[in-house]
Amino acid sequence: MTPNYILSLSLSGHFRLLLRLRPINLFRSKMSSFHHHYDSDMNGTKPTIKKSKLSFITPSEIDAQFSHHDSAVARINNGSFGCCPSSVISAQNEWQLRFLRQPDDFYFNGLQDGIQRSRSVIRSLINADHVDEISLVDNATTAAAIVLQQTSWAFAEGLFRKGDAAVMLHYAYGAVKKSVEAYVTRAGGHVIEVQLPFPVTSNQEIITEFRRALERGKADGKKVRLAVIDHITSMPSVVIPVKKLVQICREEGVDQVFVDAAHGIGCTDVDMQEIGADFYTSNLHKWFFCPPSVAFLYCRKAQKGFDLHHPVVSHEYGNGLAIESAWIGTRDYSAQLVVPSALEFINRFEGGIEGIKRRNHDTVVEMGQMLAKAWGTNLGAPPELCASMIMVGLPPCLEISIDSDCLKLRTHLRVKFGVEVPIYFRAPKDGEIIRSIVTGYARISHQVYNKIENYYKFRDAINQLVKDGFTCKLLHE
Known about the structure:
Layout: E1 6-7, E2 32-39, E3 48-55, H1 59-65, E4 74-75, H2 78-81, H3 86-101, H4 103-125, E5 134-137, H5 140-156, E6 165-169, H6 174-185, E7 190-194, H7 203-217, E8 224-230, H8 242-251, E9 256-260, H9 272-275, E10 279-283, E11 295-299, H10 321-325, H11 334-337, H12 339-346, H13 352-375, E12 389-393, H14 403-417, E13 419-420, E14 423-425, E15 440-445, H15 452-467
Parallel strand pairs: 4-13, 6-7, 6-8, 8-9, 9-10
Antiparallel strand pairs: 1-2, 2-3, 5-11, 10-11, 12-15, 14-15
Helix pairs in contact: 3-4, 5-6, 7-8, 13-15
Pfam families: Aminotran_5
Protein name: L-cysteine desulfhydrase-like
Keywords: Pyridoxal phosphate
């Protein structure tokens, strides 16, 4: 089996969309357009081009691609685990069977070339300079461990001084915060969290707090050695102005910048030349339609002296991170091999990945505004600070008063109403009374399989709870 690649190229050799974007939820059916099959010589050189016709996907075909989803559940939580269409699942099964039929042949004659093709696709999509800058790993948490492990060694070997700082956002993903604790704090680094407001109203609020954190890190002659910046925070979900924050890091002499973009590719704009970070990671199973679990880690080749290694040491140790990551022992590598198949699925939509992102954003904003109006609440961020997810305030009368209320209410919505949505607790400030302010925010997602009825179902479930006089205190009884 040889996967195909479908991309659109500009004359400059960079990937650009050649289709105009249409209004949300508009898909052309039974129409043809010339797309390009992408072939690489496996050395990171420019692709050759072959033309072929491909029909845009229809709504019924989308339903068929995701028919394995539980139809009884309004799944408006793509952000947590992503989704994988049946065509990509089939491609994954083919890779798995190829391995099981003849493992030795697969190992010696299929695996490395297949992973190299996947890396080449990612390299082009994110506008990296060279395929050697792209490694495939299990998930963004693994990528964080790779980067933070190197930071830990720098402290241990005296390259960084004890007490030098690492800066990260207060809303960094929980697993990444634990990794910072495990690798940086234990090695003697001083960790400073950027305190971000929520709800947030502008990028300037984020930029101001980030500058303050860098100043704290440089106090008493110390240096900020590492900045960990989310591209899109998970909970609460906000698009962070990464290009500006990376620029500030360069101006302030921060040694290394790591962008944790677990929700990046397929959800917002990802361009390594524009962002300018040293390291950038994004999951491919969240918004890029790959099965769990696969992510890429970009490491800027121009940087010297980064001794990066996969945390699992195997036979390829010392041959470069990309090669180390491509073999960490006998395991299922099929998720890393279906990246080209996922791209084929994406390019069946008008506008390809850019069209999907635009429609997802427009629809989730529309649905968020609908819910906020129905409940008399507010959004957690303006539309320009949202991608394919948005935070919507829940009615104060639900009395969400502690973190555990969020998980209990989420479970209640799943079990009683068939709605799957994560909930965030925003603690009241001094003087605020819980029942009079919004303390609970739902993070709704939109992906191509979602329908408007999913959000109406959520709206009606909350309205029913309000009508019944429900409060979260009842969940503790």
